[in-house]
Amino acid sequence: MTPATPSSPFAEPEMSESSATVARARDREDTDRWSYYLDPDFYRHLADVARSWSDDWPPADPLVRSECEAVLAREARLIDEARFNEWLELFTDRCLYWVPITPGGGDPRTEVSHSFDDRRRMTDRVYWLRTGLAFCQIPQSRTRRMITNVEVLDEPSGDRRRVRSNFVVHEFRAGVARSYPGWYGHLLERHDGDWRIAVKQVNLLDSEHGHENLTIIF
Amino acid sequence: MAVSRVRVPGSPSIEIEELVRADRVHRLVYTDPEIFAAEMVKVFGQTWVYCAHDSEIPDPNDFRTGYLGLRPIIVCRERDGRVAVLFNRCTHRAATVCRLERGNAKSFQCPYHGWTFRNDGELIGVPWPDAYGEDFRRTELNLGRVPRVESYRGFIFATLNEDAPPLLDHLGPAAQLLDQWLDRTPAGTVTVRSAANRMVYRGNWKLAYDNAGDGYHPAFSHRSLLRLGERFGDSKDMVYFGRSPDEGPMYAQDLGNGHTFIDQRPSYDGVGSYWAQQRLQPGREAFEEHIRARYGADADRLLDLAVGGQMNINIFPNLLVIGNQIQVIEPMAVDRTQLTWHATTVDGLPDEINTLRMRTQEDFPSFGEPDDQANFEEAQRGLGVPEVEWVMMHRGLGVEGREKTDEAGVVTGPVTDEHPMRGYFREWTRLMSR
Ligand code: FES
Ligand SMILES: [Fe+2]
Questions:
Q1: Percentage of chain B surpassing pLDDT 90?
Q2: Do B358 and A37 touch (CB under 8 A)?
Q3: What is the interface pTM, i.e. ipTM, of the complex?
């Protein structure tokens, strides 16, 4: 429900330490807080990743593929159950969640995306959904997603796997049901024995066309 | 189009003038399909309407398709550099002749029976013309051409009204504001080729225009965004809307001819403050470090250009210049509208600044606009109550000392007052009553 309107809508923000103190204390590896890794080199690396989605890959070992399917299924379930903090934990510290507007991705250096989220912005997105004040998500969307056609390119030497899949995300909110078909590209990296998501590229079939209330996490 | 009178269930029909009063407008203005149909002819057909930006069709024979109200159009760059705005409607049996969003073509061949038109509209070929007797090349069979096309510093407008005043007169004080928005950039221009957020809502198009000049709503409608801006302690962009906004230096204006303006710039203080206030974009620190190392004393000035101009310039009926975006209101039906947010880059700036501009321009469509559009949709739902007829817009009206009118007729008042709405509805009424 919409909260009642208080006379002053804003509590005074908690004061931060002075910016000088903060600057000294900056931990560049704390990617929830600071964004030093999303630099021009990252964009170049991303262009290579995005190009690789359209390569032909040899069939993957069924075991490898089913491991990747399990990662995707777990991610899907965490989003669909709105367990967004746990969803964030599936990602690496230097990750990207990318929903391009231009079909195939375009050039994010000179084009806007629906989402081009570094780790901090992903955390923002979850925080924003959790404020209870995002009226476009009151009531909250319910989602369920189907993922099929999973293909994997295993790169054991780099502890990396590229995963390509098709999806349909079904959404129901405020009496309206919608469906979003498209395909995912996941770049997985192994960290401490677990597979984590380094890049998630979400390609909506109608990415550059009009959408209503496009505020769910894909 | 005959809608000078509208039937209201349970009461005699009322004049269009009766629907708009000094302090309120009638719900039918937002809900009545006949009024909507009339708007597409009398508003979108009779005043200057924004069609495209020069940078979308830079070269000879470039084109871009779009809408003038509900009319499909093609905006073409002719060989001599002039711009033609054509109805995308085959003169044979009505099919659109061009189905691409943009491209380059000297002519358009209708995919239905193959009639071919040059990009100035002239019919230049029909298959097997013998069947048409002497001469198929009749001027009445050229593509319909919008008679007046003018542009101002890259913004291309068109109107079907042959008697419309020159564009510059129509823009009035809004032209200087566009100057200020553009003159932040090194070459005084922006480029519109950076994709667009197309956001559709189930509501009337005027709900978006009302909102564009509304400094009352941010404190409430954008609470989620403002809370996000406070996430790390310091407050960011737009927080000044949240705390006693009328006591701050911002103001709102009714510029005349339906145009309105909100100036947030007075809440900023000097070079670097725009950058400092912006919510944290992805890659902010990496790019800032790079820009500071490379450009030294110029860095703050450059970083400010990665952030919006803090001006909301609203050109009636369909152009909203906000942040660094060029936003276009596209009515689809009486209760359905697309807002297209064209992102912009700036020639002559370091690539890193343009990349940061992209990340800044993704912020509001993600965390700001969806909450407004949810409110527009809920307003449209509320407007379905026939028994509650009026939409109130009287905030500040007649309250001593709030609003001032200058010699040019520009009304300036506190940022939360509703004089911008009252102003544009005068223009709406003028156009609709003709
Ligand atoms: S409708 Fe275009 S050629 Fe027939
Ligand atoms: Fe808003």
A1: 89
A2: no
A3: 0.94
